[in-house]
Design goal:
single chain; 729 residues; alpha/beta; Chitobiase, domain 2; TIM Barrel; Alpha-d-glucuronidase, C-terminal Domain; 3 domains; eight-stranded parallel β-barrel; 9% strand; binds 4-O-methyl-alpha-D-glucopyranuronic acid
Amino acid sequence: MPVHPLPRSLRSWLLWLSLTLLLVPGARAEDGYALWLRYPRVDDAARLAAYRATLAEVYVAGASPTMDAVRDEIRRGLRGLLDVEVPEVAAPTRAGTLLLGTPAASPLIAALALEDALQAAGEEGYVIRSVTLDAGRPATVVASHTDLGVLYGTFHLLRLLQTHHPIDDLDLVSAPRIQHRILNHWDNLDRTVERGYAGFSLWDWHKLPDYLDPRYTDYARANASIGINGTVLTNVNANAWVLTPMYLEKAAALADLFRPYGLRVYLTARFSAPIEIGGLDTADPLDPAVRAWWQAKVDEIYRYIPDFGGFLVKANSEGQPGPQDYGRTHADGANMLADALAPHGGLVMWRAFVYAAENPEDRAKQAYDEFVPLDGTFRDNVLVQVKNGPIDFQPREPFHPLFGAMPQTPLMMEFQITKEYLGFATHLVYLAPMWKEVLDADTYARGPGSTVARVIDGSLHGYDHTGMAGVANTGTDRNWSGSHFDQANWFAFGRLAWDPSLTAEAIADTWIRMTFTNDPAFVEPVKRMMLGSWEAAVHYMTPLGLHHLMGTGHHYGPAPWVDTLSRPEWNPVYYHRADSVGIGFDRTATGSDAVSQYAPPLDSIYGHLDTVPEKYLLWFHHVPWAYEMPSGRTLWDELALRYQAGVDTVRAMQATWAAVGHHIDAERFEQVRVFLAIQEKEARWWRDASLSYWQTFSRRPLPEGVEPPAHTLDYYRSLSFPYAPGHFP
Ligand code: GCV
């Protein structure tokens, strides 16, 4: 028998690696660090020749740190994609000049009569156009009113090359539909990341402000490439220390690095900071000493960071201090901070994620009850930041009823990019379809067509400020997001914040081409896999409107049986209400009446069993196990088959991946392959644990086609994960 010094799995992996290197031209190990900003040589010879002719030289107008970033990126991009050194010239010399700049910086660009298009592009938007210069020479221009717009346009042009689009007849105008496109880092000063599954925090606070990790610049590049223009550096479960001079100096160093990329720095404000670091004995927002303290603190912050964006605040929620501790309202608290920030042009993003243990009302109703009466009482520089759904980033939720219900208060969207309730970094779940479902939902606030997207882009109510926040999924892992496919969610968040009307499919298509390859034999199946991945996770975790069934604290895996936590609304049994009759939360008029928080006709659509969309059935209704579903099956059978469908889809994803892997590098292929295997195992766990538990109520057999559980319910109940990542009790 031959003796193999290496284990079999490692041997086959090495074989795979060497075969890939031999067989796939240009395939080399990739670790994912470059994100979607890989610039590999264009592998279509005709396209490459056309690009080289159209982009034969580069003229960059203007000198500023942002224009330096433009120069750096175009050089980097063209060097990689065209595999030639494209010269930078002081004036066009031949056919095929790429002109990058503002009309203010360049008479040449000013002479191109782009004014109408530039007007439409606004401050951050840009124009990309194929033009003819005086001498009759064809050229391409990327222009904007601002240097930042030129940078955004440069990334767009590179995207066209990366996705192999023709560029000889361009006429594009692009402007963001949302003003504040912001990442929320739930990063702590000790570098742990709440709900972070990609290692530790990117911010190395201890070495800042002296050591500036080159990764900070790549972070800024990545964000600028997708139009993100703000970053909240710290966790909403805030630490007042970040407002002390020592930390402000560190935050300022990051702000200085990010500035050329248009990325503004924001911080979270702990409401009790005047007590904790200010030596006061109250944080009452109406107390003159407290107000003076915040004013002085804000003035100080602006001395460190002259373009500081403002504060994000979680108050009177999950134990965080807030104005209600002093008998004041959320508006009193937000307005105090807003008054301090207003002279500097700063914003307050005040979160509507509030619910209280003492409040016996359905948790799904509490934020609406709290905030709607305050509509119109917030200062002009306050935005209320609302999670996409009324509970908490569940695998699927109906849109939050606050959207459409506060016409006089700018509401901004809060999505979660990190996958706290969606399988952490190992499960492949592409989130754009979920975000699109919410953005495209009709609130009916002003009749049909009053979509959530129109609420947050300000067009429905005429808001002065608009914003979209995404809870970041980045960390120190080499691939930034913990998995290669989670990069797609960061990318999709930025693209949707720029333009919520983009489709999930178009975003996936672009991302796959930039991140892996343009080969349609890879792009098409992988795109289909991504587009079906969210629904698959909903099926194997929380089908038909079920929600909040995850393990206590860490939210890893199923634990629908938990009923022992001190706060009722922290127990999964609060949400599913399973009994011998049926399952689901009655939120109709006979139950908590949460449906009444939705505008007509949605209140009635959601409120009746025969009209409620199946996907929200158990969110709004307690439904008998024997209830006949539109499919003709009983609810029990339908539920069980949904769990099975989720598992089956993951298996199909595994097969897809195995079939297309040879189109890409072995390193990324292998990690995705293993992660899909983990996902399949955990999808079975979800199915088996959940169905075993539901069966104790339904007392019905599993329908044909559903695999029997591998273990007993007691086994699933016995599992415990005290060290699951992302959770710091
Ligand atoms: C930052 C959920 C999460 C918490 C998070 C909270 C919030 O409850 O589990 O980790 O805290 O949402 O959004 O404030």
